Amino acid sequence: MVEIRNLSFQYASHTPVLRFPDIHLKEKERLLILGRSGVGKTTLLHLMAGLLTPKEGLVKIGDVDINTLSDRALDRFRGRHIGMVFQNNHALRSLTVLENIKARLFFSGKSMVDKDIETLLGQLQIGDCKNQKINELSVGQLQRLGIAMAFVHRPRLLLADEPTSSLDDLNCATVLQLLKQQAEKNKANLVVITHDKRIKSAFKNVITL
Length: 209
Ligand SMILES: Nc1ncnc2c1ncn2[C@@H]1O[C@H](COP(=O)(O)OP(=O)(O)OP(=O)(O)O)[C@@H](O)[C@H]1O
Known about the structure:
By secondary structure, the chain is of the alpha/beta class. It has a single domain (2-208), classed as Rossmann fold. 34% of the residues lie in helices and 21% in strands. It has helices at 41-48, 71-81, 97-108, 114-123, 139-151, 169-186; strands at residues 2-9, 18-19, 23-25, 30-34, 56-61, 64-65, 82-85, 157-161, 189-194, 206-208. The strands form two sheets. Strands 1, 2, 3, 5 and 6 form a five-stranded antiparallel beta sheet that branches. Strands 7-8-9-4-10 form a five-stranded parallel beta sheet, with helices on both faces. A hairpin with a 2-residue loop joins β5 and β6. α3 runs parallel beside α5 and α5 (139-151) runs parallel beside α6 (169-186). The mean pLDDT is 90. Bound molecules: adenosine-5'-triphosphate (ATP). Residues 11-12, 15, 35, 37-43, 195 line the site of adenosine-5'-triphosphate. The site of adenosine-5'-triphosphate has 12 residues, from α1.
């Protein structure tokens, strides 16, 4: 469950106040957020992840008003309950695919047996690359690793920032399908922000900032 109410943010006193529409997502609901460049999509995603503190308003994930948490508790909450997929993958270049997944699990304080990790990698069609270093992966494989890293700790909220804009039509459709499948499997909310209009029809729930 995600609730956003009366949310606003300001980067600095001389910059405009960004205001965001109210959002209410029930369990497993998915949302696509569209908007032109500079309108505040990434800012909203970062507010939902607790990476930025709002000027005003509420961000509630499950039963938790995330802005009432201490910095430390918020870091722990994010590590355990939120997964993020970025346009450019944040995997550690010196590690292999498998080592990156294990590092992500370690930092979230959760565990998964090797067999289940391999199943996840297989579902994302990167099982054969598990011992490859990050710089040996294609763009599509790297994007799928980003999804694996966002889901491996079974978050209740998955936030994806432009997950498809650097992909061709085929990889775009595949990544979208995988995001939806994994969210469904984890009963997680999925929020995607993009200006990639190709994916609009894949979501029932769409808002434009
Ligand atoms: N660190 C910052 N300091 C000041 N202003 C910022 C900062 N980051 C972003 N902004 C401004 O805030 C506004 C919203 O930025 P944001 O990155 O959220 O937009 P966006 O919709 O995600 O854009 P894009 O689609 O181009 O990524 C923009 O006008 C941007 O210039």
